[in-house]
């Protein structure tokens, strides 16, 4: 019923790698990453960062809503690569205009 699936060298490699990954590599990886977890109280820092983010986000979003109300919403635009190309040309022009 499996059409000989699971009988290739990849299947056997996966079978033998699984215990090593499960009991050695992954626990070591998570122990390393968890070592960067902040210990102790962070005080009011999270609350301050949250308030700062909310205020900045509200300010920038209101500015953008006002712009869209005046100019309208545009769904099309140049690709990322085209935008980067134009910016590179502008930077090159600035550099050559300086000399």
Written overview of the protein:
The chain has about 100 residues and is mainly alpha-helical. About 75% of the residues lie in helices and about 0% in strands. The protein contains three helices and no strands. It is extended and about 60 Å long. The chain starts with 8 loop residues before the first helix and ends with a helix.
> Biggest β-sheet, characterized?
none
Structure classification? mainly alpha
Could you give the distance between the termini?
Answer: 75 Å
Low-confidence stretches: none
Strand content: under 5%
Mean pLDDT comes to 87
- The total beta strand count reads 0
Helix share of residues?
over 70%
Q: If you compute it from the alpha carbons, what radius of gyration comes out, rounded to the nearest whole angstrom? A: 27 Å
Order of helices and strands: HHH
Summarize the structure.
With 99 residues, the protein is mainly alpha-helical. It has helices at residues 9-34, 45-71, 80-98.
Q: Any key phrases for this structure?
A:
single chain; about 100 residues; mainly alpha; extended
What topology emerges from the helices and strands here?
Elements: H1 9-34, H2 45-71, H3 80-98
